[in-house]
Write a sequence for this structure.
């Protein structure tokens, strides 16, 4: 056994009051301990555990679940005498309950590797032990008289993931956490404002240089660069405009008068998915009536609805798709308020309690909650979709909330019936009926609120075809609004109008990406410069401060949770965005397609042919260009081509269809 | 919050987990890294020439620890010189002791820095390990061991290796002190910071970063940390008070480097220097051309850009506070951005880089990435050490050797800027007179105009054939000198360091800092009065500071004609110039000169009276500071019947081998034909007699300007012009001409010209006599502005005749 005088404690965040008490007790006990220790509290998600492990200073870590057992100082003393060697793991578990593992001691590097293999699970310590066993680690008991667990607490299965983007307030439902979250939010907003103020002159400096066409070596190419950059600059400015007004999280208590209907829209989703949603919807606190709006017209759905005491509604056709489905339900129900969930969005029991109090303001038309993808770790695509949602439902919606004008997102919201009646129901003439409806409401002077709490868990598209279908619909819908909805946009408040335009303009980035992919290839293959050679140094001097500040502001607005994957996915969607732009301009309609919730499996390389072609072109152009001349311009353009390849690699990886391994827990349980 | 760390309240002690090093690979990794790092630092340490700054280090380190009063000059102590210069004395003191024991060989001079650099590698490991893990420690120290930037400054007799050593040690001490509450952490922090601020002022930047870090975390750290921090600060302040006193008394800014203001590329260039070393310009521009990869890295780094832990906060503070502070000061006060000064941020940079690579690239591939970065660094090292166009490699050895090999009699060496001299003198082994151009008395902020440069250059160059100029191209102050020489001196040949001007495309050598240029000196005739600045050898002799190989080339003789030896020096015997001595009882020979050696930092006035039959012409000469003036007697007509030399000076000078003490002197020495041989000359003015034809004489006026006095002129009336000769051609010094009308003969003032219209140079007085006779001309010298005291001019000769 190795002897060491220090230990890092990684503690799973307690869910119960007993666990909280034990944690506090340990914290005070450690002060009196002569041993050198550190204490890190984290969540049970393997991702969070890995972060905690990396932060640990010691090379030996003790992972403890306070909800399962207490930890006495005398035990800790004994632990330090019996610490595991390199190929050992020390475990503390009662002999009569092998499936309860309250405490493990690992080598830090080992623990990181073990938890890297785990999916989110309710019993992470058991899963880790099983993995270690499978890898041949020898188990050693930490003490001859292991403490029996004092409770049979079972941790709720709740992957945390990028939870921190939503709010910290809901973690332990403490009022002081709300205050802490507000303080953090204010600090974050102040930081962002300072950074934006620093970014404005950098942006202006770049813009002034950019629009000076004397720098052009080739006017058409330079014009393309200017167009691409102007689109991005507009997106940047819009983003800064949004996050400038980040609203602090807040919570209202109490109830309001009025009946609440809960609509779950479904169209051929797998029944088990619908069942989870239905069960959770029925179980929500606050009296309400649940309706299953089945456009698939399944008998199984009817039976399912009856089983849970919900009402099964259907209609003879699918006119208007989801909007039509909702409008039909509105005709046949009578609640003063209604909540809408997609078939895969499993609501929390507190959903209605959190959102309804905001309707005490008479001009609130709807209150929106974010979408969270519980299956984000299942595939690269799902993770990329989650990352995109994290950006939108994080700082973007928080910023829009500052304008009292968050966009209606189609699910996870509660709406006032009177408001939607005023505009004649949901808009059926758009593939993004939610946003169109929200725009119409805002145009009428209604306000909306955003509650940044994770109150529903949904499913991300796990494979690329599903993802592209979803993105295509969103892109087309938004661009149609941009192209044809200007008359409506004119009626909303100017600041909010800017936000709508900005949100839609994000789908113009296909033009920018195409330019960024093409320009270096043109130079490398044909030697045609975009920017004059004599001004290329100037280009760096003007561009770099702007781009670095922009990235920094972006990262900080996400509290440092920017994932490269999200940028890669957005970058790789350029053919979809271009196609949607053309469709929106020429007025070509696409059908409303429900995003599949279950992966179809297999690769989808045929869907990424444009991206593959871009990668191939970049790969070919680099050696061709460098063969012709090796100078600063060639190197810069080659590096830019490499950058494009790195960005496009994400969508190609998504096309590979690779999925995460099955949860280790189930296999490990089989082994045990 | 993904991770809520309660460690701030419960963590009580620091730890070093020795148990983590359980495998032999882990055990040997660090010693191997240190060995490799040591080999890279020690290998071939003396091959490259001493650089500019190293020569300065050597010069200052050779000063004594106490001030020294030489014959005419006060020689500062090492401490005084350091206070007047730009760096504190710590390293110089260390080098002083080192030199006393081991000598001044190039290899030997660089050993202290190399040892400090080697010691930094394990310190970096300890810091990274304490912050993160043993693995990160190894990764970071790999980068440090391979860093060409660190290796460059290791092989340099300067204090930068010590600076980074102390910065790393101070950071390590701070971590142990405030995170683990270790007393010895405070001790380490205090000692390291204390030494650091005595070795280089930029240690204050690190201290500032530490203070910012503590300030940010003040509310969490509590009084148990803030109190000892305050005590340490107070202690350091007290410890630094003596030096502050020295700065107040001696700092003048004369030694401040002339750095270029930072531009938008400076951050990229700094990053390139830190990671890949001092590359030649072509390589640097290609490295900077890869900037799109930085955008990718920025996006990738955003993946773990969450609120940094205290570790990340500490490292980012150390990285950003000095950098931003230096840029801010450079933009608002004066440029102080230099890669070597910002070496203090490199430990933090290397650790952050190791952490970033380890986190972005999961798994063993991160080891390959670190290996790739280290390989690129070593490639950069290769370029740094072998490229002849490395802008940081200043090859004075090559320059001095070239001059030695190709110089000939009649050559003179000029050095611009002045701080070049120390390193050049270290290697030069010729006896050519060497001057500083501009003069060492010129204040750095003085903008020399062309006239001033012209006067100065002519004063030293006349009589010589070729001028070897050693330029330091980065120095902004010598730009005016260079411009003048390039324009006025012909036959410019760049021998070393580029064929064009600075930063010329197509010639990478033009970016090399040290340039040797050979000029053909235009035909500058020996002036009747020639004031030359003192050579470097003479200056060294005056201050008692020894050059390494040079000897003063114009020794001073004592009153008995003996050689006045400087302390510790034996001087060779150069060819004495013919001089007309005091007390001579015979007239001067045609090639006799009066030599006045003025070692003072102020000008000294002397007067020369020429006795003519019709009277005296008084010439007052201001001998410039730090100059050796030769007053040639060749232009005196042999019909002069006497010559007197009067020295009016309150400062000591040496005139004609006679040392004159520094008090008000009015002495007259000379020869008067009226005085019978053997009798002493009493200095009376002699007057009367017919006028032999003699040229006119320029006499300086009180407080500027000049008058033209003519004597023995039988012209009656006519006109004359005054022309001035420059290398670019003859120019009319004064517009128009004067007329004269001398009826009575004798000595008359025929013109008065204001100082504004005259500059240093050769003048020609063209006289056109009335009646159409051929014009005659005479070249006369005007070499300064001085005054003829009115009481020296016989009243009957004051005023009158001539007109402007």
């Amino acid at each position: 056994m190795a002897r060491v005088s220090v230990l890092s404690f990684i503690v799973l965040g307690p869910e119960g009051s007993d666990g909280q008490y034990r944690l506090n007790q340990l914290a005070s006990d450690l002060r009196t301990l002569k041993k050198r220790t550190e204490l890190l509290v984290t969540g049970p998600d393997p991702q969070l555990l890995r972060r905690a492990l990396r932060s640990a200073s010691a090379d030996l870590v003790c992972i403890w679940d306070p909800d399962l057992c207490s930890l006495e100082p005398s035990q800790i003393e004994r632990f330090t005498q019996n610490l595991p060697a390199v190929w050992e793991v020390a475990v503390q578990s009662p002999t009569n309950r092998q499936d309860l593992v309250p405490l493990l001691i690992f080598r830090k590097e080992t623990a990181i590797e073990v938890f890297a293999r785990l999916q989110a699970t309710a019993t992470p310590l058991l899963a880790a032990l099983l993995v270690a066993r499978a890898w041949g680690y020898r188990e050693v008991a930490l003490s001859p008289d292991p403490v029996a667990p004092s409770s049979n607490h079972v941790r709720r299965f709740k992957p945390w993931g990028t939870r921190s983007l939503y709010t910290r307030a809901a973690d332990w439902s403490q009022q002081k956490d709300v205050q802490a979250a507000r303080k953090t939010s204010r600090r974050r907003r102040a930081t962002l404002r300072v950074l934006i103020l620093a970014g404005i002159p950098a942006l202006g400096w770049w813009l002034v240089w950019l629009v000076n066409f004397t720098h052009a070596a080739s006017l058409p190419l330079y014009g393309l660069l200017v167009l691409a950059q102007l689109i991005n600059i507009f997106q940047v400015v819009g983003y800064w405009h949004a996050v400038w007004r980040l609203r602090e999280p807040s919570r209202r208590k109490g109830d309001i008068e009025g009946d609440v209907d809960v609509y779950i829209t479904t169209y051929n989703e797998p029944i088990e998915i619908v069942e989870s949603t239905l069960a959770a919807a029925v179980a929500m606190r606050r009296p309400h009536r649940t309706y299953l709006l089945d456009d698939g017209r399944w008998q199984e759905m009817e039976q399912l609805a009856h089983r849970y005491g919900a009402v099964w509604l259907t209609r003879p056709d699918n006119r208007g798709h989801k909007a039509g489905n909702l409008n039909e339900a509105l005709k046949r129900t009578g609640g003063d308020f209604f909540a809408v969930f997609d078939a895969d969005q499993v609501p929390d029991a507190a959903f209605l309690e959190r959102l309804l109090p905001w309707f005490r303001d008479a001009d609130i038309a709807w209150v929106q909650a974010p979408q969270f993808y519980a299956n984000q770790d299942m595939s690269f695509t799902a993770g990329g979709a989650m990352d995109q949602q994290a950006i939108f439902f994080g700082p973007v919606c928080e910023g829009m909330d500052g304008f009292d004008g968050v966009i209606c997102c189609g699910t996870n919201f509660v709406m006032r019936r009177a408001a939607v009646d005023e505009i004649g129901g949901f808009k059926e003439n758009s593939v993004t009926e939610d946003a169109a409806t929200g725009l119409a409401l805002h145009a009428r002077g209604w306000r909306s609120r955003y509650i940044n709490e994770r109150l529903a868990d949904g499913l991300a598209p796990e494979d690329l075809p599903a993802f592209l279908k979803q993105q295509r619909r969103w892109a087309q819908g938004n661009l149609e609004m941009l192209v044809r909805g200007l008359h409506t946009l004119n009626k909303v408040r100017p600041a909010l109008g800017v936000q709508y335009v900005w949100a839609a303009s994000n789908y113009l980035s296909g033009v920018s990406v195409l330019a960024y992919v093409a320009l270096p290839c043109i130079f490398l293959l044909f030697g045609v410069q975009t920017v004059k050679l004599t001004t290329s140094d100037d280009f760096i001097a003007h561009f770099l401060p702007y781009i670095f500040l922009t990235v920094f502001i972006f990262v900080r607005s996400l509290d440092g949770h920017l994932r490269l994957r999200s940028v890669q996915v957005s970058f790789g969607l350029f053919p979809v965005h271009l196609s949607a732009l053309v469709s929106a301009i020429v007025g070509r309609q696409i059908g409303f397609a429900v995003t599949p919730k279950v992966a179809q499996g297999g690769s989808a390389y045929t869907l990424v042919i444009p991206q593959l072609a871009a990668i191939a072109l970049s790969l070919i152009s680099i050696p061709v260009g460098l063969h012709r001349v090796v100078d600063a311009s060639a190197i810069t353009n080659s590096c830019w081509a490499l950058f494009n390849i790195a960005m496009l690699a994400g969508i190609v990886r998504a096309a590979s269809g690779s999925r995460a391994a099955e949860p280790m827990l189930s296999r490990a349980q089989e082994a045990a | 919050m993904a991770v809520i760390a309660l460690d701030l309240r419960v963590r009580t002690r620091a730890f070093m987990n020795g148990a983590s090093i359980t495998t032999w690979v882990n055990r040997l990794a660090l010693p191997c890294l240190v060995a490799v790092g040591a080999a890279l630092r020690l290998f071939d340490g003396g091959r490259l020439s001493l650089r500019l700054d190293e020569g300065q280090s050597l010069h200052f380190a050779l000063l004594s620890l106490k001030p020294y009063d030489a014959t005419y000059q006060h020689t500062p102590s090492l401490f005084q010189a350091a206070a007047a210069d730009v760096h504190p004395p710590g390293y110089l003191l260390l080098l002083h002791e080192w030199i006393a024991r081991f000598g001044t060989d190039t290899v030997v001079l660089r050993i202290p820095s190399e040892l400090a650099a080697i010691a930094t590698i394990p310190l970096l490991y300890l810091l990274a390990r304490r912050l993160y893990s043993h693995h990160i420690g190894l990764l970071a120290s790999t980068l440090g061991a391979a860093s060409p930037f660190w290796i460059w400054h290791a092989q340099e007799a300067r204090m930068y290796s010590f600076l980074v050593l102390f910065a790393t040690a101070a950071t390590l001490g701070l971590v142990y002190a405030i995170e683990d509450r270790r007393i010895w952490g405070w001790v380490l922090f205090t000692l390291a910071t204390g030494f650091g601020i005595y070795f280089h002022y930029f240690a204050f930047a690190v201290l500032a970063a530490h203070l910012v870090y503590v300030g940010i975390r003040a509310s969490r750290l509590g009084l148990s940390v803030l109190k000892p921090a305050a005590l340490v600060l107070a202690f350091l302040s007290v410890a630094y008070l003596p030096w502050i006193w020295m700065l107040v008394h001696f700092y003048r800014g004369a030694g401040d480097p002339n750095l270029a203001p930072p531009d938008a590329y400076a951050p990229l260039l700094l990053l390139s220097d830190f990671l890949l070393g001092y590359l030649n310009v072509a390589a640097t521009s290609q490295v900077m051309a890869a900037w799109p990869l930085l955008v990718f890295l920025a996006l990738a780094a955003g993946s773990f850009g969450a609120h940094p832990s205290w570790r990340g906060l500490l490292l980012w503070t150390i990285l950003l506070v000095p950098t931003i502070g230096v840029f801010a000061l450079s933009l608002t006060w004066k440029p102080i951005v230099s890669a070597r000064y910002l070496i203090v941020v490199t430990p933090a940079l290397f650790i952050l880089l190791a952490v970033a690579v380890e986190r972005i690239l999961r798994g063993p591939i991160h080891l390959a990435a670190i290996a790739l970065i280290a390989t690129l660094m070593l490639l950069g090292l290769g370029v740094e050490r072998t490229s002849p166009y490395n802008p940081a490699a200043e090859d004075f050895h090559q320059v001095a050797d070239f001059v030695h090999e190709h110089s000939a009699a009649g050559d003179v060496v000029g050095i611009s800027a002045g701080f070049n001299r120390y390193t050049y003198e270290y290697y030069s082994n010729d006896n050519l007179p060497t001057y500083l151009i501009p003069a060492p008395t010129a204040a750095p902020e003085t903008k020399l105009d062309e006239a001033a440069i012209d006067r100065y250059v002519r004063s030293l160059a006349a009589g010589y054939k070729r001028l070897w100029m050693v330029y330091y191209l980065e120095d902004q102050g010598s730009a005016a000198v260079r411009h003048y020489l390039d324009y006025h001196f012909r036959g410019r040949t760049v021998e070393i360091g580029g064929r064009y001007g600075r930063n010329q495309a197509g010639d990478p050598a033009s970016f090399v800092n040290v340039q040797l240029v050979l000029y053909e000196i235009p035909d500058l005739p020996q002036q009747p009065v020639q004031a030359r600045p003192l050579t470097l050898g003479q200056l060294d002799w005056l201050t008692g500071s020894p050059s390494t190989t040079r000897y003063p080339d114009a020794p001073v003789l004592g009153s008995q004609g003996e050689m006045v030896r400087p302390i510790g020096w034996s001087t060779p015997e150069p060819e004495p110039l013919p001089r007309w001595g005091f007390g001579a009882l015979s007239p001067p020979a045609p090639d006799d000169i009066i030599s006045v050696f003025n070692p003072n930092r102020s000008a000294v006035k002397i007067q020369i009276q020429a006795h003519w039959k019709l009277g005296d012409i008084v010439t007052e000469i201001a001998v410039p500071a730090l100059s050796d003036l030769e007053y040639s007697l060749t232009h005196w007509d042999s019909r002069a019947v006497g010559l007197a030399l009067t020295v009016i000076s309150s400062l000591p000078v040496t005139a004609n081998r006679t040392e004159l003490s520094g008090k008000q002197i009015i002495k007259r020495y000379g020869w008067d034909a009226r005085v019978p041989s053997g009798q002493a000359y009493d200095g009376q003015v002699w007057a009367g007699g017919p006028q032999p034809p003699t040229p006119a004489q320029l006499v300086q006026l009180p407080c500027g300007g000049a008058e033209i006095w003519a004597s023995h002129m039988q012209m009656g009336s006519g006109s004359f012009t005054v022309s001035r000769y420059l290398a670019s051609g003859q120019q009319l010094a004064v517009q128009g001409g004067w007329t004269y009308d001398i009826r009575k003969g004798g000595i008359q003032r025929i013109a008065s010209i204001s100082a504004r219209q005259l500059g240093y140079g050769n003048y020609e007085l063209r006289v056109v006599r009335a009646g159409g006779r051929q014009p005659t001309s005479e070249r006369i010298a005007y070499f300064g502005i001085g005054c003829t005291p009115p009481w020296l001019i016989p009243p009957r000769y004051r005023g009158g005749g001539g007109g402007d």
Q: What stands out?
A: The longest strand of chain B covers residues 717-726. Residues 223-250 of chain B form the longest helix (28 residues). DSSP finds 24 helices and 25 strands in chain B. Chain B touches chain A through 54 residues (CB under 8 Å).
